[in-house]
Amino acid sequence: MADCFIVGQQNYYIELTLIMNKRKLIGLILILVIAPALKGLASGLVPEQCTIGDRPVCYPIVDIGFTFDGAIDIVENSTATVYSDGQPLETGVLSCSNYTGRKRTQGTAVITFESPLILPKGKSYRLVAPEGVIFREGNPDISIEELSVEFCVPSTIGPASPSIENGSIVKSTDRIGFYFGVETAPVENRKVVLLREGVPVREYGCDVSWDWNLGYAGVDFGEKINFENGIRYSIQLPAGSTSALHRPDIVNEEAEVNFIGGYTEPVKPIQYIWCSLYDHHLADVLGEVKFFYDLPVALSANPTVQLYIEEENLIIKEVVPTISEENGKWVLIADFENTPLVSEEGYSIIIPEGTLVSKDGDVIVNQRNVMSVGNSSGIVEIKNAESPITVYNGIVKISQVVEGSDIRLISLDGKLVYNAKASVEDVSIYVPVAGVYLLSLNGKTYKIAVK
Q: How many whole angstroms separate alpha carbon 64 and alpha carbon 49?
């Protein structure tokens, strides 16, 4: 059998034949092998541990310490040096202290620098204490060989471990973030981004905390919020959102965790209740358009509203909307900057899905809203219609319609309820769901309420 003996830092392998009647021979072999090792140990002093080298150094270095089993002393005026690429950078002064406990005495040697070392990040370094400068108290013959310790100052705070499993299902939670192997600090005005189906919908201030040798950065929702069933979400921590606690120049790399919503209760999407075009008819240009909402809404991270030509399937203008409050309503304002409208051309205003998000609480967004604005004649009231329009008991009736007229009925969320050419003088359209609709008749659009 092969036994391994560890004496100091050396391994010795001895082949032993364990035969009872040969114990004296075996004992002699052991003495001959181990004796030289003990002699070498008697003239050497090896530290138990060092305060640097095991972990990346993400802090200014004030001092570096070594601990020893037993009391130690140092050579007067001795120093140790930090090297980079073989060149000396900084030199510190050695001092020592001894602590005697109930079971043993522990010696500590400390290299102290004149001012804290803020070494360039992204590089490796080597600390060297010369041979013999630390020795056993009362016995200078037992001293250290040259001490050499490698350490690094990283360029970033290292890998980010998400607080939830990537790809997992999350029904509800009050926070999601990332853990780091170093203590972290906040970076001013940094945001964490929440994405829904790949679209940034909310931004949160970066919530940062730390514990002993650990750091955290992420989003605190302020309350437990629900995530819609089957919807893909992501939390993005942009690069530079948090830093090492004592080195603001050492920051995180971008991190992201993806998950799927698991909240199964029905979620009512955001839908506008009124549009300024109902009251202000189009002329030959399209300027500012307002959409009114009866619940608190906010713009997503990348909001847009589009002007679209229906027959050509062409987006002719995109604008970045703004949000305001008017008379207890939240208002989405899209300014198309007096875009010219071509006569007899069919236009629509599109609010893409995820342009708006609920301001607080659960993450609710608008579905894709399409509002047809007809041609340059615009939206007009029923009383100005060329053909009489009446609404009764869920039925929209249009009288005196010219044969071949184009008739379309559209809900406010852009769903096409009716689309046909008139073949008779009187047309009746059954509407199963009460609400406000847009009736397009020969290119002119009328707002109607179905009860």
A: 11
Cα 391 to Cα 17: distance, rounded to the nearest angstrom: 107
Q: Which residue has the tokens 């060297």?
A: 128
* Dihedral angle sign, alpha carbons of residues 199, 171, 169, 211: positive
What gap in Å lies between CA 277 and CA 379, rounded to an integer? 7
Ramachandran angles phi, psi of 372, nearest 5° = -75, 130
CA distance 245 to 183: 5
Burial class (CB in 10 A: 0-12, 13-18, 19+), 443: middle
* Residue closest to 56 by CA, chosen among 147, 148, 129, 125: 125
**Which segments within 182-226 are labelled E, that is strand?**
184-186, 191-196, 199-205, 207-211, 214-226
Looking at residue 253, its pLDDT comes to 98
pTM over 0.85: no
> Cα(443)–Cα(347) distance, rounded to whole angstroms?
10
Helix, strand or coil, per DSSP, at residue 21: helix
What's the average pLDDT block by block, 10 residues per block, for the chain (451 residues)? 28 29 34 33 78 92 97 97 96 97 96 97 97 96 95 97 98 98 96 93 95 95 95 97 97 98 90 84 80 93 88 87 94 91 78 92 90 56 63 85 85 76 87 82 76 76
Q: Which tokens in the block code for residue 327?
A: 């008379």
Backbone angles phi, psi at 25, to 5 degrees: -65, -45
What is the secondary structure of 235-297 as a DSSP string? Answer: EEE-TTSEEETTEEEEEPPPEEEEEEE-B-S--PPB--SEEGGGTS---SEEEEEEEEESS-E
